[in-house]
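Attaching the record inline, Q. Sequence:
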Amino acid sequence: LVASASSDKTVRLWDAGTGAHVQTLEGHSRSIWSVAFSPDGKLVASGSDDKTVRLWDAGTGAHVQTLEGHSSSVWSVAFSPDGKLVASASSDKTVRLWDAGTGAHVQTLEGHSSSVWSLAFSPDGKLVASDSDDNKVRLWDAGTGALLQTLEGHSDPVLSVAFSPDGKLVASGSFDNTVRLWDAGTGALLQILEGHSEWVRSVAFSPDGKLVASASDDKTVRLWDAGTSALLQTLEGHSFGVWWVAFSPDGKLVASGSDDKTNQHPNQHQPRNQRHEPEHKYDFE
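Structure, as predicted:
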């Protein structure tokens, strides 16, 4: 399945192989900005301008839980690798951790001085990375909520963050048009990936950790060598800025979502386009 989140207040589930529409999840009262599957694929989490996180049954489309506590828009949601926690990032400057089974609030991670745009769990589930309008990436202990590292170097707000599959690297994408790679253990800046001409809205590592993909308002997705920072491919086809990018689990496909209201799924070696529901846009997982 592919899940998409939209300004039409719905989450839609699609068959990844055929592109067929499977379910429409309705309940949010305002635009939805982020969506994520639980590791076992049974739950979908969504974050919205209505200040809530909602959990849904991916099989039936039924609403399971509403997680309330944020005082402003929820921009990003993610499940921990073991599926026990849901994390949410908000304009209220916080990250919140929730029990995925009960909906109970577990931790509030406070320290950013402006809106928190996105977050990610490390592969072992011990760390949470968050990025913000304050130009910083912060690393937190998922168990205690303690702030462990503040990664400074971007000159403008940071919109996206991702861990490498081995948990050793953190990638961040920013309004400063760059992608930066950091040492997750020490917080040291390792590489600056330069080439985009507009904001970088989304970053992702390939499953083997060898590639970094970045999506930009310059209408392109770029593929980089995570070890050398070399630009390997530029994927073109969107007619507006690209908001989101992800690799398929086998690493053979790259999917991107754009403000041109399309999803594109180019093979990373031979780009090609597949267009689905035209009115749906923003985030997909």
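The two ends are 9 Å apart (CA to CA). The chain has no helices and 26 strands.

More tomorrow.
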